[in-house]
Amino acid sequence: MFKLNLKIAFRNLYKNKVYTAINVAGLALGLGGFIFILLYINYEKSYDTWDKDLDKVYQVQELDLFSLKEGKAEWWGESDGRLMEMMKTSLPNVAAVTRVFESGREEALVIDDRAPFFINNIHKTDSAFFSVFPYKFLYGNPATSLKNLNDMVVTEDFARKYFGDTNPVGKVVKLTSQSWVTPTTPYTITGVIAKPETPSVFELSVLIHAPVYKFQDQILSFWPTYVKFNSIQSEKEISQSLQKIYEPFRAAMLKKWKWSPAEYLKNGNKPAVRLKSFYSVHQYPLQQEDWFTLLKPILLLSSLLLLISIINFINMFTAQAVSRAKEVGIRKVTGATRASLIKQFLVETALQCFCALILGIVLLELFLPYLNKEFSLSLSITGSFNIGLVSLQLIVLVTLITLLAGIYPAVFLSSYSPHHVLKGNFSHGKKGSKLRVILVGLQFVIAVGFFIGIMIVSGQIKYMESRDPGFDPTGVIYLHVPMIKIHADRVRNIDGVKYFGVNNGNVHRNPKLTANYKYNNEVKELATVFVNIDGLQTVGAKLLSGRFFDRDYKQDTSSTVIINEGLEKLYGGNMTGKYITYKNDSVRVQVVGVIKDIQVAGFDKVSPPTIYTASKFNATWYPNEEFINLIRYEHRKEKQVLADLTKLWKEISPQYPLSFTFLEHDFKKLFIAHERFKQMVKLFSFLSISLSMIGLFSLAAFMTRQRTKEIAIRKVLGADDKDIFFLLNKSYLWLMVGANVIAWPLIYIAVQHWLAGFAYRIEMPVLPFLMAFIVSILATALTVSVQVRNAVKSNPVQALKYE
Which parts of the chain span the membrane according to its record (predicted)? Predict the structure, then answer.
């Protein structure tokens, strides 16, 4: 029986080639988008699952002691390095403890006396790293590969790229951070590790054994620290055990720092430490939203597109299958049961869904390279690390869609009564028409929502890109390494260089340094940015009152500050010339200028009230070491400035290539994520509107065919073609009006929620709603008119000759 049903299904699908092609293509688009999201979810959930022993690894996290964010302390993914030895000796069941951190800057590597080149993803660790993280070794011994200082382990990708297919163990390479601060250091390659089967938070290229710095009471040493136990532990229990060790240790350190614990406890917090599973490091990041939260908007869009595809499939399948009413009647008369007919129609649906799945996979594979590049991923369908899981998910997905898309047409068509069907063309009835109208209306609710959404999203992004950021990023170079004073002075003398500044509050760094300041007997925790005398002029800060820091004023390097307009408003205005104190009123600084708020992190968040200081010693715990170098140059002399800078750099640092970016380009990168979202919404809008038009076309074809006899009778009785034309269009126009009425409040709420995520945003515009209404009405009229015109122009005799 199944074989017979399959033959009938193939025959019917082939007979209605055009409908079948439209059905399959529409469903393939929805499936392709949803499969991409499915692969992305699999990818993110697979992080750090490449070895079962990783379940025994935990990260040590410490509560931020030094600053509060909006009145609350934050957890760090780093902890005091002194805790390592304490955990080894005081915690039960500990197998190993290691530290590992990524180098903050590019480093220059020299292989076989070839020209130096930059390399990222250099991680520094100790000899216990491979006792905690069980990487597979292709060459070398994990027990001894990082035994000595200056040992280096590389990944298989790195080894293949720079050494070919040969074993690089024993090779000596040279690594340079800054030639005038740290000399070029030789490292011996002692091992090559295989790439894990799943992604990892450690994006390794090179792993080196770095020296452990000697601890000093007044120097803070915080490292990402990981501990491995002999068995899986309860996070709560081991955190409590660690806290018992940590509290007396931290109390003693606070005493040495001459910092009363009561000063911290008054905020409602106390020094704390905890252990979190290694798996949660990526799944639940500390200072940013987790991947699933970021994925929610895209997941919603892809689900809506798939829903539109399914609705479109149901309408198209029903519209073309109603013409098979006589077939159903005859099969029932000859003994076919309703159950067998349902199976027959479900088989046809399953065939189309399977074809749509294949086409969706092909389309996705074609676009995956572009999507991977845009989202910095490495997704693959055929090359998936767990192809079995992906295959199972796709089978379940197609089964669900087959049931969702096929169960209604199957039940509807199998319910035909042979007595009514064999009297004439059953398609003249109105059975099921209300549901099809509702489904098409739902399609247009979604399509109208997409149309309005893309206009508002585009408007917000355009507003952010055109809004004044409070500084001028054009004509500014950001050097990726600091320069000592003697070299900085030579850069200042290059023809075309206007300022050589230091500013650790630029787009790249944007640190969250805060300190307590007192004004009018009120203490506030404020963001603090380190600059040098020319630091604000270099980034093109805009002065509102007072002056910038100036070399002619010696006090500017010790007892003056500049504040932003946000802080001036917080203090009541007119702050130029007034004094602020810190360190329990022992230091008094004068406000010499007020600048416009600088948006170095885009416009998602309000620029915080900020103090800019050129003093080496300030209200924070950190010294202003002048290591974030920026160069402002005359734009017309750009080529000459870059040539002279490159020439100078080769003289002062032959082993470390010049590395820089343009601040203007860096600032534009802040909008990349929003631009990607806009393009995604634009794509989904186009697809949803296209599929909705197809759905409307099929509904119009179905409904017009149902009303053929009515049209013929009206024409025989003298109805004008124009009257019939408007009569048939009227119901669809009301359908679009209803879709707009439903879509408007829904999209208003959704977009308002999205806009609420921006500190600086546009007001909700009215134009997108009006445009959506006009466009949907016009598109409906044009789409429906194609079908109505054919019905109006047809000969009424053809419709009435069966009676």
Answer: 21-43, 291-314, 345-370, 390-416, 437-457, 683-704, 732-755, 767-786
